[in-house]
Structure formats: C-alpha cells, structure tokens
C-alpha cells in the first residue's frame, strides 16, 4: 500500500502564494482551505499544505521558523513530462515573482531547473528521459 505525502510550508501571504502556484497549474482542495491554510494538490497522493506563519508555528512545538530567504530547509522536487515543460514551469515561476535558485542541470537522462517561491522555499522541476534512463 502506498502512502500519502503531506509537506507543510509556512507562507507570509496565503493569497499571493495561492496565486503563484495556481499560475503554475496547481489546484487546491477547498475542504482544507481557510484564512490560515490551503491544501495544494500535487498528485493523487501528494499534497503541500501552505500555512500562514503564525498558524504554522502552532505545529512546531515552540521552535522558531527558519528564514527561507537566507537558510535552506528542504528542496521540493516535482517531475515534469518533458524538458519543455520544465522550462515552461520554471519560466512561469520567475514571471510570477519567483527567483532563480540554481543553474539548470543536464546530466545524461535528467534535466532540471530550480527556483525559489515568494517565501524563499526552494523548488525544482525535473524531467527524466525513460529511454536514456534504461541505458544508464
């Protein structure tokens, strides 16, 4: 049996974050959305909870939040169906106010590009060529 995955991220402005990820093609589950949080649907069993910072902090046991503009916390990597889709999604993220994170990486069967979202969280879209992967 597979597991569902939920990643929770603190955000400064929930509306701006929803607009940003909507522009990248993501949808949101209204059952888990209010003024404090929303559930971004990544895949059938993968979700990202975007929580406003004060609400996120109620889940940290008193720990301070990392400043994701100056510290790395995690890199969320999502698959794409082609190199073109990687470029389209990353270009759109930059148009919507995201910032470049790393130089594009092309290594044999894999191509990826990275960006930081409005809150500095690092994201990556990657394409793995199945034919080239089998030859590796």
From TrEMBL:
This is VOC family protein. It comes from the Bacteria. Pfam families: Ble-like_N. Residues 3-128 form the VOC domain. Gene3D superfamilies: 2,3-Dihydroxybiphenyl 1,2-Dioxygenase, domain 1 (3.10.180.10). It comes from Nocardioides jiangsuensis. InterPro entries: Glyas_Bleomycin-R_OHBP_Dase, Glyoxy/Ble-like_N, VOC_core.
